[in-house]
Amino acid sequence: VDLGGRTQITAVATQGRYGSSDWLTAYLLMFSDTGHNWKQISTGGQYRSECTAFPGNTNADSVVQHKLQHPVIARYVRLIPLDWNPNGRIGLRLEAYGCPYNSDVVSFDGHSSLLYRLSPRLRQMARESISLKFKTLRNSGTLLHAEGLSEHSLTLELKKGKLLLVLRKGRSSSPDSRHLVSLGSLLDDQHWHQVAVEHHSNHLNVTVDKSTLWVQIPPRFTHWDHDQGLSSLGSVRSNRNFYGCLENLVYNGVNLVDLAKQRDQRVTTKGNVTFSCAEPIFVAMTFTSPQSFLWLPRVTEPSLMGMSVGLQFRTWNKAGLLLTFDLPNQEGAVWLYLSKATLHLQIHKPGRAPLELSTGSALNDGQWHSVELISRRGRLTIAVDGDEGATAHASPSFLIATGQLFFGGCPAEGSSQECMNPFKAFQGCLRLLTVDNQQVDLIKVQQRLMGNYSHLQIDMCGIIDRCSPSHCEHGGSCSQSWSTFHCNCTGTSYNGATCHSSIYEQSCEAYKHKGNTSGYYYIDVDGSGPIRPQLIYCNMTGMIQHNNTELTRVRPSPGKSRHSAHFEYASEEKQLAAIISQSEHCEQELTYHCRKSRLLHTPDGSPLSWWMGGLGEGQAQTHWGGATPGSQQCACSLQENCVDPKHHCNCDADHNEWANDSGLLTHKDTLPVRSLVLGDVQRPGSESAYRVGPLRCHGDKNVWNAAFFDKETSYLHFPTFHGELSADISFLFKTTSSSGVFLENLGIKDFIRIELSSSTEVLFSFDVGNGPLEVGVKAGFPLNDDRWHRIRAERNVKEASIRLDELPAATQEAPADGHIHLQLNSQLFIGGTASRQKGFRGCIRSLQLNGITLDLEERAKITPGVQAGCPGHCSSYGSLCQNQGRCVERSNSFSCNCGPSAYTGAFCDREVSASFKSGTSISYTFKEQVVNELNRSNSTHPSSIYSDMTLRAENISLSFRTTQSPALLLYVGSYHREYLALLLNKHDKLEVRYRLDSSKDAEILRSKVRNLANGQLHTILRPNQCSLALSLSLSLSLSLSLSRSLSFSPDSGELDPELARIASLGFTGCLSAVLFNSISPLKAALLHPDTSPVTVIGPLAQSICGSTSANPYAAETTHHLSVGTGQPLVNAIRSDSALIGGVIAVVIFVTVSALAITARFLYRRKGMCQSQEIKTVKPEDSPELPFSSQTSSHNGPSENQKEYFI
């Protein structure tokens, strides 16, 4: 349809043929300015390449109108029927709605230009702008160049079909003197494209068609005076001139094309400039699928002089057949094809080796490339891109001439036309086909007047750039083929089809409850949000270092009355803000050591010193560590223990002795400490030092944010979820129900939903306009087991996926070239649906949408039928408590009670170890908890009581590291002189010495394994069993040993002489994880010395000498976390074990020893595993203890007491 002139089309309507059964049910719409080079009109869909059809009519009389989402400016409209009434024929009445379109147009021929000399403005404008439209067939050329009096310039130019905006400072060509921005793609398609540039104070808004880019202007370019000098259209100095048309060029409100048409004296014309758009006609065709092909008969007679074929193509595919034909007399075949983005020519002739040529590279860049195949006088040549490209030559000994030609592919099997394609079919665009220098008329081909074709779109090039704009997030690189795109997420810290989801957890708390130990971890505080991951140390608390965490001596500076310090943190501002906000608790140490240096107090009340704290530059704070904000006090004032009660800080007493004020800053609004100003550092005799510790944050209030839905009709509602192009949803749930909807959000037609469809399956369903799609994941176990399960769902323009716990993700690809925007408008329902059907009954926790946590607890507090929080975490996480630690429920999480364990840490996984100096010893005196009444015993023999009660069922374990032999490792004795001792003898072997009856001599069992005093870590275990089964497992340390000493020296009055001699030598080395039943004497001495019945003689220091996972002296080396490992980023030095046989031998030896002891013991005490009455003994009957000791009891050992020496 010719509209008679360019028209702004806003709507179209169709109707069937009057009084007939002829109407269309679906059709495509095209538009053009010239009647050629058609472009498809979108139905209003959301994908930039969308080629969906317009719905047509259902009868011959009704009118179906479609308003276009974006008006189209064109002279010609073309309708292509796709489907029609099966009982009739193609027939319609068509109406187009719109208005005439008038514009000012100028045309450049590649050698012409316009030069404007604009008058300077009297004052700066608040907003300055440039807008224009252009169309061209060439992929490079300068559209506009503006230069001010200061030689600052702005240039708009095309380069390889992309629009470049270049800001240049002066005439220098250095990289620092220019700033470049790229936008758009495939702009050389001979269609109009809109460009607008708006300048604001410190940024530009650059728009190409419907895509807008916000560009920060570097400070060196902020001075804008481009309109105070020269403006050039069509060319700039040595750059390639523009070939094409410009329309409606408006520069700060001035229509420059109209000025040129009026021959304004400020305008200079160079070359052939016309004020209409004259454009050449190039007919292109699109090979849309693997079934596409074009067949052309031989248009000229074969010549002995040779032949030539030429064409231009553009594609994104690396491979595809461009041309094939048979040699004369069926003596072989020729293939011209792309492989690995390189042009190849291959000739097969029976009885000869194949002839192959290749040339060119990176030919799948979406640009037009020309190809010529020429055979003349025995010389064969293929050339790519003419003079700018590459050529390849050969000299075949046979004639090459063309017969019938096949472009792009071959007809389907069964066709009468003979064609063989051993390569992939071509998908892309072809134009300017020539055979023997004669151009092929593709319009005749379209009209079926010449040749044949299938699956072709003629008179249009349907190539699209799926990477512009890129859907790859977080810096992922985009690559594409004809039908899809791919995101390379390497090095981005994100994964998924569009690099949307972070590979790291959002807090130390999340790592902690996956069972990870302390170490360096990457934390992504906003998940899939824009804040980048950061490396911090999890203890398991988050520790963020700054540039000076050491104690710093204040040095007086001449001429300065104050000392100031500024602290730069390892995290960016957004990262800091997010960590502090989502942490349950943050703290930072602030310490001041002083002598004659006051801290806060002055007579007039103004503070001498202060610090800046909080986000951004921070706010001035006048309180010190341990005090409340605004109090202008220190911790000692709150504790009422300042050295001078008249002052609120120790340092304010202004004494000549050293004092200090220290404490923790815990108010998150005032953290972190940004800077510190000390005001009393210049007086004679003043000395001071300060320390600002690292910022430490622990807990993650998002992880445990939960709600309990106790009815299937209850739900929470939140504002509409906005995840148009990409959406990720993650949460944990636990339930006893077999079905229910976790989440739902509706639109007019679109929706998104996640539900428990059965006791073993979770479904993720949605509709973005292509019809409902769903992807489900099935578990091989019940999900209604009242344990926590994690769901992670993601939907993007390429695919949808859902993952349950650690099972493999299930995925569903999105339809090619379909709708991609998810348009929702209802409220977001959690735990139910708008219809209140199929609601969820159970707990939902840590619900995050696109990295943002929804506050379920706050909403639950005001919602009937929903309770804030959800207890019962130990059923899922209790196994994280190791080494006999017990899981303890908390209101919104859980903790591990390490009381009965010899270990400490969040999960009772850190050994308590100590290295002792010479002369150090520990004694622990404890009272056995016996059954009920002690006076119900039938025997008064002390040996019978304590033999039964102690040696038949004791649980003993410890680890040691030493280079000393002989050495006593362990001594356990009762007051009646029965004992068990573990030691290393002078041959570095393990010995077990025991006396089960005080009236008999000690017995000795020795191992055959040597070299146990080798400085490596060995572990001894004695499980709690009815029989005296003693086992020992030996493990070599994975790191270098420490060389420190431990003294182990009980009094030897009651010991046999040999054991007394060994005990007198002491023990030099390391002991770790010492446990006797539920008592850990080493842990009590190191961590709870004031509340435990433990006595320490000599110096005692906690150490990591008992660690088996890392070399204490090895430096920590940080590297990227492997996806899915969940391990801390620390390299441990490891060595291979060469003593596996020794391990087995020691285990066998100790087992045999245990059996021997057990046999003798059971022979003496038959029926010891039976239930017995416990006999008591009077205190006065208790013999004197064999060792001298200091205990917590003032009266010495009481009944049922033992001593345990280390």
Task: Please give the radius of gyration in angstroms.
Answer: 42 Å
Percent of residues in beta strands? 35-45%
Name the average pLDDT.
79
The assigned structural class equals mainly beta
* General shape: elongated
What name does the CATH topology of the largest domain carry? Jelly Rolls
Give the CATH class of the largest domain: Mainly Beta
Q: Helical content, roughly?
A: under 10%
Q: Termini distance?
A: 101 Å
Features:
1206 residues, mainly beta, Jelly Rolls, 7 domains, 8-stranded antiparallel β-sheet, 38% strand, disordered C terminus, repeat, membrane, transmembrane helix, signal
What does this molecule look like?
The radius of gyration is 42 Å and the shape is elongated. The chain is 7% helix and 38% strand. Strands 7, 9, 14, 15, 16, 18, 19 and 21 form an eight-stranded antiparallel sheet that branches. It has 1206 residues and is mostly beta strands. It contains eleven helices and 83 strands. The protein folds into seven domains: 2-100, Galactose-binding domain-like (Jelly Rolls, Sandwich), CATH 2.60.120.260; 105-221 and 229-270, Jelly Rolls (Sandwich); 298-406 and 427-458, Jelly Rolls (Sandwich), CATH 2.60.120.200; 502-542, no CATH class; 544-549 and 585-618 and 650-697, no CATH class; 705-877, Jelly Rolls (Sandwich); 903-927 and 951-1102, Jelly Rolls (Sandwich), CATH 2.60.120.
